[in-house]
């Protein structure tokens, strides 16, 4: 088979989307999604979005990412990591070396840049899923293992119905107890901007800070609403907004992220934040909520609110340097 591999070009965008949606049906994209999540990413490099063609058509693609312009904090502490965020090969062209050729070509580019580690799917600013779906894409799992990628962990996504959700008496009692101890659950307002950002930058992962910052920018343009963020605040008075010690947010049906400062964990703050946020999502007319990426420990908490495992993923890593 006469195959060429080259960076993405304008003429290949539509054929790539068509192929992407054919081979990755649970993770299909539109042109808007591709542009917002990939092509307009601050770190996007067209040289690492590779497209394989035979003489007539697009038969494969592989999307590579790295911290080209914007550092990724703890996700890339030494600046030597790279990612594969999506890939696919037309079914009729599999077992013809197309996927292997794309991977070899991409890793060669990354090695030339001095990258030492390659991860699959977990590129923080623009991941689509937290790994390869072990049930939906077993061929992809097998391919990566054969190429020397090692499994690091298995995150999951979860979904919950909200139509009948209501805050339990237990949660209401926990909230009452928190209030008595000086901790309140409040809706975000602009008076909390500085303490909220201080809390995030001190306690939360860099990617969560980036998401929150983007949402707060959208709030200034009317694309995001203050009641999409709930805060846990300690020591609030009539003249002092208090210290932000936890938060929870949602974007449409997407629940999270949410977290509590370490020294305040174990007091039920996260449980109340979670419950009140889901209650508000239902009040806004949402019938379902989903968590895209969590682990088995947090899943036990989510399960108490009706969340059930929807998909299971495997995160792969390979030393390439």
What this model shows, in words?
With 321 residues, this protein is α+β, with helices and mostly antiparallel strands. The chain has two domains: 4-156 and 315-319, Aminopeptidase (3-Layer(aba) Sandwich), CATH 3.40.630.30; 163-286, Aminopeptidase, CATH 3.40.630. 33% of the residues lie in helices and 27% in strands. The chain contains nine helices and 14 strands. The chain has helices at 13-23, 31-39, 98-112, 138-146, 169-180, 193-203, 206-220, 269-283, 296-303, and strands at 4-7, 49-53, 58-65, 81-89, 117-120, 132-133, 150-153, 156-161, 183-187, 229-234, 243-251, 254-260, 288-294, 308-319. Strands 1, 2, 3, 4, 5, 6, 7, 8, 13 and 14 form a ten-stranded mixed beta sheet that branches. It has a four-stranded antiparallel beta sheet with strand order 9-10-11-12. Helix 5 crosses helix 8 (269-283). It is elongated and about 70 Å long. The mean pLDDT is 95.
Describe the protein's topology:
Layout: E1 4-7, H1 13-23, H2 31-39, E2 49-53, E3 58-65, E4 81-89, H3 98-112, E5 117-120, E6 132-133, H4 138-146, E7 150-153, E8 156-161, H5 169-180, E9 183-187, H6 193-203, H7 206-220, E10 229-234, E11 243-251, E12 254-260, H8 269-283, E13 288-294, H9 296-303, E14 308-319
Parallel strand pairs: 4-5
Antiparallel strand pairs: 1-2, 2-3, 3-4, 5-14, 6-14, 7-14, 8-13, 8-14, 9-10, 10-11, 11-12
Helix pairs in contact: 5-8
Basic shape: elongated
Overall tally of structural domains: 2
What is the share of helical residues? 25-40%
Gap from first CA to last CA: 31 Å
The proportion of strand residues reads: 25-35%
> Which secondary-structure class do the elements indicate?
alpha+beta
């Amino acid at each position: 088979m006469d195959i060429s591999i080259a960076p993405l070009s304008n003429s290949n965008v539509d054929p790539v989307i068509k192929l992407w949606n054919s081979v990755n049906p649970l993770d299909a994209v539109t042109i808007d999604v591709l542009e917002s999540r990939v092509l307009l990413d601050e770190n996007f490099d067209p040289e690492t979005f590779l497209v394989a063609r035979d003489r007539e058509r697009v038969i494969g693609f592989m999307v590579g990412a790295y911290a080209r312009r914007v550092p990724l904090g703890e996700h890339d502490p030494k600046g030597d990591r790279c990612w594969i965020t999506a890939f696919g090969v037309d079914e009729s062209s599999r077992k013809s070396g197309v996927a292997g050729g794309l991977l070899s070509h991409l890793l060669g580019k990354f090695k030339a840049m001095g990258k030492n580690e390659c991860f699959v799917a977990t590129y923080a600013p623009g991941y689509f899923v937290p790994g390869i779906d072990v049930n939906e894409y077993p061929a992809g799992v097998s391919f990566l293992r054969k190429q020397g990628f090692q499994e690091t962990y298995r995150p999951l996504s979860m979904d919950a119905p909200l139509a009948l959700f209501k805050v339990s008496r237990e949660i209401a009692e926990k909230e009452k107890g928190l209030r008595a101890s000086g901790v309140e659950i409040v809706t975000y307002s602009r008076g909390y901007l500085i303490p909220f950002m201080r809390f995030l930058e001190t306690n939360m992962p860099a990617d969560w800070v980036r998401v929150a910052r983007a949402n707060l920018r959208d709030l200034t343009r009317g694309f995001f609403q203050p009641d999409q963020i709930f805060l846990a605040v300690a020591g609030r008075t009539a003249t002092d907004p208090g210290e932000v010690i936890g938060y929870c947010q949602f974007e449409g049906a997407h629940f999270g992220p949410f977290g509590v400062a370490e020294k305040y964990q174990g007091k039920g703050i996260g449980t109340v934040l979670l419950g009140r946020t889901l209650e508000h999502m239902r009040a806004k007319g949402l019938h379902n909520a989903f968590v895209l990426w969590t682990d088995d420990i947090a899943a036990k908490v989510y399960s108490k609110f009706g969340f059930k495992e929807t998909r299971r993923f495997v995160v792969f890593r390979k030393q390439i340097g």
